[in-house]
Structures are given as C-alpha cells and as structure tokens.
Amino acid sequence: MKTMTLGKFPFPPSTNNQYATIMRNGVPIRIPSSDYKIFKARMADWHMKRDRLVTETRNFMLEIVARKNFFRVDKYYCVPKAEIYYKNGNLRKRDVSNFVKAIDDEFVKMVAMDDSRIKASYIEEMGIEGDDAFVFIVVSEHKFRTISEYVRGEVPSGSRATW
Hints:
Elements lengths: L2 E8 L8 E6 L2 E6 L1 H16 L1 H16 L3 E11 L19 H12 L6 E11 L5 E9 L21
Parallel strand pairs: 4-5
Antiparallel strand pairs: 1-6, 2-3, 4-6
C-alpha cells in the first residue's frame, strides 16, 4: 500500500494552551493564544519550504478521493527522551491526544482536504535524541469498514467485555 510521509512538522501546543480567554465589555471571549499563533506561523513556513511535497501529498489524496475511499492519517509525536521521564525515572504526565487537533487542522488546511474524509488515525509519542520536538505524519488510503467485519454476532457491552 502506498503511503505519503511528511516530516518534522513543528510541535503543536496542547489543546489546553491553544486559546486564551479575554474579557471584552464584561463578556469572556476565546482568542488564539500566542503559542498557537506561533505554531500556525511555523506551519505556514514549513509548508512554504516544502510546497512540492505538499502538492504531491494533495495529489495522492485526490487519487484516494477519486476511488471514493477515505484517509488514514497517522501522527508520531517525537519528543526528547528527557521530556518523557523525570530525572528520578518517573513518567511525566502528558496526554498525547491533546496535541492532535492543532496538527490535524493545520494539515488539512495545508493539503486543502476536508477532514471528514479522515476515518482512521493512529497516534504515538516516541522518544528522540536531541532537543527539538517535532511531528511526522503518514497518510494512507483507508477503506471504510463496519463493526460486523470485526465482531461476530452482537457487540458486547459492559466493562468486562471481550471480543
């Protein structure tokens, strides 16, 4: 299966840090945070420097759309090993899913695709040598499926269900 890999995207701010709240005439208003504005500017710069790769990815995705299929967009959040564990060896608390929305929004904007065509995704945080965190994305074709392709009979319910 053919895939497209795009790499070394700027690391996004957490969902918790994408917006700030200001008061305007006594009413709270959400505005993009300075971290989010910086991230968006860095993404635009990334795109400008790699326009040919972005065009190839867009064309690859258009071929998938022409076959009436969907996308799988896997994201790998690469962070320095020192940011995964504290010096005492305990795991740092970081919810990698909090970084997904910003990268997804900027990616679909960059390739000019509707994000409703993304029907599958995988995310992983991985350690790297060095100090500069980044994200890379792998795009592939995804054939939409139904639960009956995985489960025979009725889907179990409850917390102790096994398939």
